[in-house]
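Example protein
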Amino acid sequence: MQLNTISHYKPLEIQSDYSVSNARREIYIQSLQNELKKSGVATQSSIPLPNLNIQTHSYLTSNTTNLLSFKNTLEQEQTLATKAISQMQDFLTLPNLSEINKNLNAKDSKNTFEGYSVDKNGFMGEDFNKAAGLPSDYKIHKETLDKMYAKYVKPNTMLIPSEASKHFTLKNGVYYSRNLPLANGQSHFDKLDIASVFKWAYSQLEPLAKDFTKDFYTIKELNQYFPAGIAYDSQNNATGEVTLKQVYHSQKELESALEKNKSLSTFALDNGAKNLFCSLDKSSPIHKNDFYLCDETYSISKYINDDKISKEGLLIAFIAQQGAVFKAQSPETIKSEYQKSWEKFEQFYYGGDSIKNYSAIKEGILSTNDFIQSSIECNMWLYYYFMKGNKEPHLLPDNIDISNFLEWEYKTPNAMQLALQDKAFMEYANSTISSII
């Protein structure tokens, strides 16, 4: 960096019998800053001075007798001031310049999130938008990221009492009840690349919109510019990338898929259908209470104003509804031992990913018989009701008595083996699942 030389310096008038008064020092600093600005050097009201420039430092800061006494002649003072200017210019050349800039920016750097800048109004800076693949005018509030961090990265406070811990198995810092990992005192991620979550979500949502250029949207415009719902091919990225497989353009299409999912979920199956943002009352204006779950984890109320939701708010509602933190891929994100254990448990308990299993059965890749065998752990209630006399799919109860079922399972040795070896039950299970696929 080439600095221009300050060509002149006019000594300031001596105003007291002390070496340099407070008022005089402030006037001098302002004068020096003005000269430096003319030379193309950025400054602040307080310029850090190097320890080696002792005389310069003393000149600018001392309130007591020093080398620049009022007894000095103007010629002596001008000589010393010229020397101070020279030393300051030497100081402002590299490598000292980088240290100055670091100190000058220290105050602003305090208001950051994971290294990204935050403006005076609490919104993330352009560096975050760039990393997240968002347009430069997007305003994502830091409080949203703080709450996401608290939800997914910071360990929860549901600790297991020490006297109860003896009933569970501890492995890699996670307590287990049989095969079930317990969430107590755990988090989902050791490290979460939140920018990648926003990047994934924006890349998914933007192509679905007929118009994603408006700053705010009314409920009518949501119906006009966005589909009612979508379905992905997986719950999370535990087995690879997640792909969009279905778009429900009308509310009628979506409601039909959601109604079907009520029956599927009973058998640990899922067609993946979800509202695009959340379940909204399409006959009334948008209100923050519509997104109450989003607000707890994402502060979505900051994006709702006068019965409208901003484009940023829609993106955040999409992140929340679609579980984007578990679908986005990033080498910077590190899953916790608990999250990895939970994904393994799902594979074991549900016989794999419930959405992938549904698609595989529907497409004839996975037989219902093989599915029942792989997911018998979570479908034992089906055998329980079969044993109680429910021999046809239409006789399945609307409400399952969990307490009686658990007592029966606990008192029935080798219940799973009995179910798998019961030919009549396996035929019944196959017909029951086939009837709702």
User: Anything to note?
Assistant: Residues 318 and 371 are 31 Å apart (CA to CA).
